[in-house]
Amino acid sequence: MKLIPNILIAILSIFFFSGCNSESEKLPILTYVDFSKKGTIYETDFTVPFNIWGSNVAFTLFTTGEDFPIGHNEEQNKIFMKTLFLKPIKETPYFKVKITLKPLFKSYSNTEIIIGKNGKIETKVYKRNETIEEIVSLPLYGRHTLSDKALIIADLQRFKRYHVKIEVLEDAKIPEFVKTKFGIEMYDTKH
Hints:
Blueprint: H1 3-16, E1 25-26, E2 29-32, E3 41-47, E4 56-63, H2 74-85, E5 94-103, E6 111-117, E7 120-126, E8 132-139, E9 150-155, E10 161-168, E11 180-186
Parallel strand pairs: 1-3
Antiparallel strand pairs: 2-11, 3-10, 4-9, 4-11, 5-8, 5-10, 6-7, 6-9
């Protein structure tokens, strides 16, 4: 019988500390952001929830299919399929983006990130309380070095708040019917 109060306390503490904070968004976050226009800025605060598989968070650019007139125009269908599956080619437009990630608490540990640059995957470690700033180029067509079109994957502290800012540094010429989204979600390294 002593086990039941302990389990109840554990469950309540998970809900209490799980980022149920009205000042920050809950993950996953998925929102339209126009990555093709220089000067576009998106920023938000978020809380990293508990995840049994780890504390990695992916910051990702998506090209969406829901706004594509699929089945209505063969040329548009081909372009959409290229955004998903084609390896980047010489003429591929790239999105040049600056990502800034800042802890909104006093951190007692370093933050490790994974970033794709120049066709290679790099791992970097930022000192505790250090603001992460990276400039990443992502191809419109095909996938990036990391999964899909991830800007970075960061090992963040659970139940802690962060501020992220995305700034588009260059115009990218893309078909007018292509829509882009920005997503923040837990990144599962086990499956």
